[in-house]
Amino acid sequence: MDTQKLLTVNNVSFSYESEEVISKVSFEVHQKEILGILGPNGGGKSTLLKCIVGLLKPSHGSLTFWNNGKQTKRPPLVYIPQKDSMNISYPMTIEEILRGARIPEGTVSREESENALKKVGLEKAMDTKLGALSGGEFQRVLLGKAYLNNAQLVLMDEPTKGLDGVGQDKLLEIIHNFKEEKQAGIILVEHNIGQVLRHSDRLLCLNRNYHWHNHRDMIDKKILESTYHCEFEHLLIHENKGDILSHDHHQLHRNCSHHEDSNSDNENDKVKGEKKE
Amino acid sequence: MSILTDFLTYPFLFKALLSTVGLSILCGLLSPMVVAKKFAFMGASISHGALLGVAISLSFLDGGTTAHSAGIFFITLLVTIIAASPLAYSTFRQRLPSDALIGLFFTATMGLGLLIHQAQGASTGDLLSFLFGNILTIDYFDLGLLAVLIVIITPVILLFKNQWMLFIFDEEAAAIQGLSSFRYHLSLFLMLTLIIVAGLKVSGVILINSFLLVPGIYALKFAPNASSTFRYAILFSTFTSLTALILANSFDLPTGATIAVTQVATYILSIVMYRK
């Protein structure tokens, strides 16, 4: 791939008090590339994103940002969390959130904001409050913000959560357009394994002490089984039901019917995961 | 007519009028952020904690001079900042202490304040006037203080309005974009403490929370956008407190309590009218 490196994550670990949430994770993100991050809930995906954007300081390892092959300080980047993590009671409008895209350097004019909104295909009045938007519309407004501050890296935490199939495809198309136009890198944390496999160039499978990183063509059933600590067929049942798996879901769902068959294999599964680590 | 001319005829009422307008402007500026940032309990905690500062300052000072008012303000401010700063630190970016811990803080500081006051053998009337406010005690120092705070705090908020809005809406995004969230958090805490301590004589430790909350709740409900929440809250706060002041003077009611009830009643009336 003739694209340039934007980010190198080297042996990054992070611990909450004495509990290690991620351990010695290494990967790279390139221009015009989507890195999909897969893994169960509690596996350290959101923690990793917060380390990259600078909200958390890794307890070990380093993050290096690159610009035209030269090491640089953290470039403009946009972190798009889930809508429910924002303070929706505050009546911010689309225009107000976009106006602040270049803070602290300056503010954005209404005309620039309108152009950014067109690029993300949102035909909503600029004075619409963010609380009145659907999850997908909200993600698009924040992508508009990424257009305005020329973000080189966009990090999205479960962007397709709560969207129907059409909404998911539309959003992912906008993400593709953004990375091509801005030559940006996208980091996409997703629970929807199918969407991640379809849209990502590289993958990072992450579950606390276990991680695997490579081109998406290199992934196989065994890697997914090791990431989720369960068998692939079992994983498909959850995927079809739209469940979100936690890193210890076997312990939490011992009485579910489809776990009964696999309960006997639980210990083996865990051993399998630990051995891979 | 006499209701209105009273305010011009009697100096204490004129001072009460000016101080109420001053406090309305200050609380109107901060109130939407306090409510949106879920600082309501924090504000209550700071205001109750201020009673400790008042009790300590009354132990050192007596008399009704301007120096007395200034002494009470500065000692109360210092004690309140020192006592509440661990709370300010622990509430930064989700390091939220439990409600029980905040409750423990303000009951302990308030109780300690009452004990210190009792031990000094001071009259309980002094402290009661700080619990519920007493417009008769307002002097020119208090008016000057409110004017200085308006001159300082208004530009701090309005010149950096977009930054404050980003900080309130999404503290993490603000930090990622390079704003010092911790600095904004501490500034909000400091402005809140300054306004609470400066407004104690008007509305008292307990009722000042009405000034800090109701205008913000109203503004977040009715303002068309975040920028206009400041304007909505200031107008609501000024209108309701002036109405309450006139009612209190006309019917010989306690001012702080009348302001609190008028603000809540106006908000409820607005909701009812809005639904119709």
Architecture overview:
The complex is a heterodimer of chains A (277) and B (276). Chain A contains 11 helices and 10 strands. Residues 251-277 of chain A have low confidence and may be disordered. Chain A has one domain: Rossmann fold (3-Layer(aba) Sandwich), CATH 3.40.50. Chain A starts with a strand and ends with a helix. In chain A, the strands form 2 sheets. In chain A, strands 6-7-8-3-9-10 form a 6-stranded mixed beta sheet, with helices on both faces. In chain A, helix 3 (110-119) packs across helix 4, helix 4 runs parallel beside helix 5 (165-182) and helix 7 (221-228) packs across helix 11 (266-276). Chain A is an alpha/beta fold and 277 residues long. Chain B has 276 residues and is an all-alpha fold. Helix content of chain B is 83%, strand content 0%. Chain B is built from 13 helices and no strands. In chain B, helix 3 (40-60) packs across helix 10 and helix 4 packs antiparallel against helix 10 (181-198). The longest helix of chain B has 26 residues, at 11-36. In chain B, 47% of the residues are buried. Chains A and B meet through strand 6 and helix 2 of A and helix 2, helix 8 and helix 9 of B.
Secondary structure tally: strands of chain B: 0
Number of domains of chain A: 1
What composes the largest sheet of chain A? Answer: 6 strands, mixed
Name the beta content range of chain A: 15-25%
Q: Which two chains have the most extensive interface, and how many residues on each?
A: A-B, 27 and 26 residues
Q: What best-fitting shape of chain B do the alpha-carbon axes yield?
A: globular
Average pLDDT confidence of chain B is: 87
Spans of chain A of at least 5 consecutive residues whose pLDDT stays below 50 are 251-277
**Number of DSSP helices of chain B?**
13
